[in-house]
Amino acid sequence: MFQKKKIQKLIRFNMVMSAIHASQGLLVLFISSSFSLPITSSYLAFNETTESLEQASKVLFDLPLAPLVALFFFISAGFHLFIATAGKKQYSRDLKQGINRFRWYEYAISASIMMVAIAMLAGVYELSLLIAVFGFTAIMNLLGLVMEVHNQTTKQTNWLSYVVGCVSGIVPWIIVAIYFWGTASESGASAIPTFVYWIYVSIFLFFNAFALNMVLQYKKIGKWKDYLYGEKSYIVLSLVAKSLLAWQVFGGTLQP
After folding, report:
1. What b/e readout covers 4-20, taking b as 16+ CB neighbours within 10 angstroms?
2. What does pTM read for this prediction?
């Protein structure tokens, strides 16, 4: 009975989170500038002068940053709303088993969009690289679901999917770091706005906080002995990470 009441509180908490995420998404759209960044494509082109293939690139389109930022808020808001309404029975059943599949589906989309935004701010404009950034981040989060599902059938916690997820998740950060290094070596560290460095560090730490939350859950350390405490921690971490990224981006590039 006590667990049932805590799950009901979590369902109501999801409704509140839906409203907060949606409100921030709308606010970003209404008060932001039309700042955009180019999406490019690289390819080989024949140089008639040198009679050789050389790398070339072209701008495919310009992507406004404000809708991209608002999108990860709206995705979170939609999932929280679904959990609190049509999906609450499935959500309740899953929590009793130590799973929240909706969380990982949402993160696979919203966190991947967040990572794309961070990569673009660092100068990653090439479409294929951005797809890789999105894909590796999505795989990392889906492996979180694999971790929870797989360990329903094991007597001892199997950490394989967790480790593979961490390996996948670090790749986008390495891509961004390489761009930082390349820009700094050619133009100096000051060529990259300070707020982009702050975004890199702060959101990297928050992404690691999600991984730590899972470790604490499976190790059953302190309050994390209760899966529902870890669930609430995920919800709070998600809100803080998205809000921190959004308003750092706004302060650096989206102010009218």
Report:
1. eebbeebbebbeebbeb
2. 0.95
pLDDT by 10s per residue, the chain, length 256: 558 899 999 999 999 999 999 999 999 999 999 999 999 999 988 888 887 888 889 999 999 999 999 999 999 999 999 999 999 999 999 999 999 999 999 999 999 999 999 999 999 999 999 999 999 999 999 999 999 999 999 989 999 999 999 999 999 999 999 999 998 888 777 788 899 999 999 999 999 999 999 999 999 999 999 999 999 999 999 999 999 999 999 999 999 8
The CATH number of whichever domain residue 162 belongs to comes to 1.20.1070
Whole domain around residue 198: which residue ranges? 32-70+99-254
Region of 47 on the Ramachandran plot (φ > 0 left; ψ -120 to 50 alpha; else beta): beta
Residue located via tokens 């805590």: 6
51, two tokens: 């009679």
CB neighbour class for 247 (10 Å; exposed up to 12, middle 13-18, buried from 19): middle
